[in-house]
Structures are given as structure tokens and as C-alpha cells.
Design brief:
Helix content is 0%, strand content 52%. It contains no helices and eleven strands. It has strands at residues 2-6, 9-12, 17-24, 32-38, 44-50, 57-59, 67-72, 77-82, 91-98, 105-106, 113-118. Strands 2, 4, 5, 6, 9, 10 and 11 form a seven-stranded mixed beta sheet that branches. The protein has a four-stranded antiparallel beta sheet with strand order 1-3-8-7, with no helix packed on it. A hairpin with a 6-residue loop joins strand 9 (91-98) and strand 10 (105-106).
Length: 119
């Protein structure tokens, strides 16, 4: 399964964006997924994940209450709705397959999508 992220852009602080992660070469049914981000000069960190079998969702503390992960298995797409954006959310955002325990990332990275939040 290949993953392609899209939906990034430039937004003012307090604004919203919705990122998409489209899968090709296979479907996402029972595939557990996560969103990661890497800020300039920083390490890549996991921020949201979803288990497609039991519906478990987890968020990093830094985005809890502002970001929402969801999925549409008919469209083979996972989304990340980002609200109340802050300048510190500026990063390249990536999606990835995850293990069922949601603590192991699987597969290769996509190209990512750049999110820039201006103050």
C-alpha cells in the first residue's frame, strides 16, 4: 500500500486545515493508521493514531483537543482535522501504517505535506 499526504498549506494562527492520506495499491480496511510530524530541526513525532478494528484513538498531548483523526474506508483515506492551529504546529506531516497496538510504525514514509502556521 502506498500512502500520499495532501492538504497542507499556509494558515494563520487559530485557523484550521484538513490533511488527507490517500492509499493506493490496496485498501485500508483493518489497517491501523497514524499521523506524524517533523518540525524544522526536530525529530519526527507521532501525534495521532487510530485502530480500525476496535476504534481506539490516541493523541499526543500537544494536539489533544485540537486535532481529530478520522477515516473513510470507502474512499481509502485517513484524515487529520487540525483546528486552533499554533505556530508550533508548523511541520511536515506524514501518515503511516501502524501496528494493532498503535505503538509500532510500519512500512515506508510518504512524501509528506507541509503545514506552516503564521503568528
Amino acid at each position: 500500500v502506498q500512502l500520499a499526504e495532501s492538504g497542507g498549506g499556509l494558515v494563520q494562527a487559530g485557523g484550521s486545515l484538513r490533511l488527507s492520506c490517500a492509499a493506493s495499491g490496496g485498501d485500508l480496511i483493518y489497517v491501523h493508521m497514524g499521523w506524524f510530524r517533523q518540525a524544522p530541526g526536530g525529530v519526527r513525532e507521532g501525534i495521532a493514531c487510530i485502530n480500525d478494528e476496535d476504534g481506539r484513538i490516541a493523541y499526543a498531548e500537544s494536539v489533544q483537543g485540537r486535532f481529530t483523526i478520522s477515516r473513510d474506508n470507502v474512499k481509502n483515506t485517513v484524515y487529520l482535522q487540525m483546528d486552533k492551529l499554533k505556530p508550533e504546529d508548523t511541520a511536515v506531516y506524514y501518515c503511516s501504517r501502524m501496528s494493532s497496538t498503535l505503538n509500532i510504525r510500519l512500512g515506508s514514509w510518504g512524501q509528506g505535506t507541509q503545514v506552516t502556521v503564521s503568528s
